[in-house]
């Protein structure tokens, strides 16, 4: 977690002309252009899209060579963006684990904007959820209730591209987002391509909110805003999921972060706490999952208005105040749209289908199912049972974090409460990482294994999304071939990036601040495995009893900030 303060005597801002920064900007843009091109061949298109009839797009979608070229271009483009992200971090001193320079935030913002521009015009990739928005908007305009009926009730719903898996399901989105869906379909007169563009622009508004408030929150808690922005917003998964895929999660997190910042600075004026509550309530109106943030926003508001630890009377006062404001708003919304509050009950029961093989509960379920099948036992009950256990455990964790802990750790408590809801669900979609990453980046992600966890997780979901979400016509019978082609492209790209100097630092340096002590059975010597400045083994002198000093990552390269979790500011 690099310091906010630059090294003594160094005040120059990193210019865009710096070779590493310039290369990163160009590479990231070229990668985005490759993704843009590949999306026209294997991105998701509704049957009613005019793009299907463009002469140069037809062979990309109907000829085997066109599909193959598009698959490689899309996958390669994602990894070129990934490499540009690492290259930018290296140019801004992440690889050397030094303090980031003043002006780094400006560089990261410019890079993110440059890389994002081509994605405004992509055919949707990595997800087809945006087409569900189209039909849900049509359902609202038709006077239907998306919380009681699926879009299959609509005439010609398949023409608008919604995944048949969700055709008979209730909407999982909040009532305020339904207004956006209806407005988009009304303005565009049900034109598919124009509607997708407008939904994407709405999500860009959420992206802008996130990019405004991530560095503000980070600097409020003593974390370098530029580095937090680089981790949370410049990574390719963020750009693809929130712009190319047009996920409404961008709006949810944008309003949530704006509300959290207003609550942390409510000491400036009492009304900021009211604004914070309203902003988070709007976030809930996009997706109900952000409801878990509301009690912690109340605690942040209460803490900002008092001196010292907040007493229980003040905590309950602000909990009731926040709940009252949010309740009045949501009741008013329910009255206006005619859905009442039953949408809360419906949304509380959504997400009961399937599992992700990488989720902790998914891993446990697979293991338990295999064991039961090996003994000839029924295993159909395991997933439902684990889902119930996960929900109960997450509720208990959230309640515990609400009541236990000091005020100076409120941001951490809120972040881990949100993380518990995500991690203890059987389904963890790739963009769920983007719910948590802005919050963790704001409270500080250390420049050691914590940063590597972020990088490797982004890389994993890039690899998975590029090969799992390819739209290939069934008559070509190329689904499995394109999956393997995309996976092979990812493996080659990952290998090349790992060997390049601009990417080698990710796995060769900076793992653990303190060396690992190893002892070979039967021998008296102790070995120290160093993984921070470089991976190497050192033999310790048994006569002198040498022991490597235990230091945090920050002490090794900044000496100013403590480990993840302390919200103290850096002295000016």
UniProtKB/TrEMBL annotation:
Its main location: membrane. The chain crosses the membrane at residues 24-45, 65-86, 107-126, 195-215, 236-262, 274-304, 316-336, 388-404, 416-441, 453-473, 485-507. The keyword Transferase applies. Keywords: Glycosyltransferase, Membrane, Transferase, Transmembrane, Transmembrane helix. InterPro entries: MptA/B-like (IPR049829). GO terms for cellular component: membrane. It is found in: Membrane. The keyword Metal-binding does not apply. It is a multi-pass membrane protein. GO terms for molecular function: glycosyltransferase activity. Belongs to the MptA/B family. This is DUF2029 domain-containing protein.
């Amino acid at each position: 977690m690099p310091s906010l303060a630059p090294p003594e005597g160094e005040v120059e801002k990193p210019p865009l002309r710096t070779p590493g920064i310039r290369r990163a900007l160009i590479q990231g843009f070229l990668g985005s252009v490759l993704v843009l091109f590949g999306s026209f061949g294997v991105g998701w298109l509704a049957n009613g899209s005019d793009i299907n009839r463009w002469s140069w797009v037809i062979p990309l979608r109907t000829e085997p060579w066109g599909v193959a070229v598009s698959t490689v271009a899309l996958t390669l483009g994602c990894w070129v963006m990934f490499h540009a992200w690492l290259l930018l971090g290296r140019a801004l001193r992440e690889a050397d684990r030094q303090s980031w320079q003043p002006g780094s935030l400006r560089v990261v913002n410019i890079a993110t904007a440059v890389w994002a521009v081509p994605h405004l015009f992509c055919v949707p990739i990595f997800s087809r959820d945006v087409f569900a928005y189209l039909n849900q908007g049509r359902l609202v305009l038709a006077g239907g209730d998306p919380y009681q009926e699926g879009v299959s009730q609509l005439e010609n719903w398949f023409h608008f591209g919604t995944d048949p898996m969700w055709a008979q399901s209730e909407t999982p989105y909040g009532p305020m987002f339904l207004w956006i869906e209806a407005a988009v379909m009304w303005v565009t007169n049900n034109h598919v391509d124009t509607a997708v563009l407008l939904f994407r622009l709405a999500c860009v508004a959420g992206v802008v909110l996130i990019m405004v408030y991530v560095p503000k929150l980070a600097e409020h808690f003593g974390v370098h805003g530029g580095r937090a922005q680089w981790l949370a917003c410049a990574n390719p998964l963020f750009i693809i999921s929130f712009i190319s895929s047009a996920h409404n999660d961008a709006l949810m997190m944008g309003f949530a972060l704006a509300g959290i910042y207003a609550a942390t600075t409510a000491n400036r004026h009492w009304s900021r706490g009211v604004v914070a509550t309203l902003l988070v309530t709007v976030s809930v109106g996009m997706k109900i999952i952000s409801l878990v943030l509301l009690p912690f926003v109340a605690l942040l508001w209460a803490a900002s208005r008092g001196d010292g630890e907040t007493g229980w009377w003040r905590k309950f006062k602000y909990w009731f105040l926040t709940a009252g404001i949010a309740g009045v708003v949501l009741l008013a919304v329910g009255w206006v749209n005619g859905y009442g509050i039953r949408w809360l009950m419906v949304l509380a029961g959504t997400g009961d289908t399937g599992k992700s093989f990488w989720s902790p509960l998914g891993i446990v379920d697979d293991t338990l199912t295999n064991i039961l099948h090996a003994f000839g036992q029924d295993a159909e009950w395991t997933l439902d049972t684990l889902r119930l256990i996960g929900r109960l455990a997450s509720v208990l964790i959230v309640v515990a974090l609400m009541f236990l802990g000091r005020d100076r750790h409120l941001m951490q408590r809120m972040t881990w409460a949100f993380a518990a809801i995500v991690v203890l669900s059987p389904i963890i979609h790739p963009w769920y990482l983007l719910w948590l990453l802005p919050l963790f980046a704001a409270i500080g992600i250390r420049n050691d294994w914590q940063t590597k966890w972020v990088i490797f997780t982004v890389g994993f979901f890039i690899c998975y999304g590029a090969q799992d979400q390819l739209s290939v016509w069934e008559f070509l019978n190329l689904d499995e071939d394109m999956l393997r082609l995309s996976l092979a492209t990812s493996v080659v790209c990952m290998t090349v990036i790992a060997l390049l100097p601009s990417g080698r630092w990710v796995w060769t340096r900076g793992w653990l601040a303190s060396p690992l002590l190893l002892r070979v059975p039967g021998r008296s010597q102790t070995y120290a495995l160093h993984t921070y400045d470089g991976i190497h083994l050192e033999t310790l002198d048994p006569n002198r009893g040498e022991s490597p000093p235990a230091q945090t990552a920050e002490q090794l390269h900044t000496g100013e900030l403590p480990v993840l979790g302390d919200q103290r500011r850096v002295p000016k």
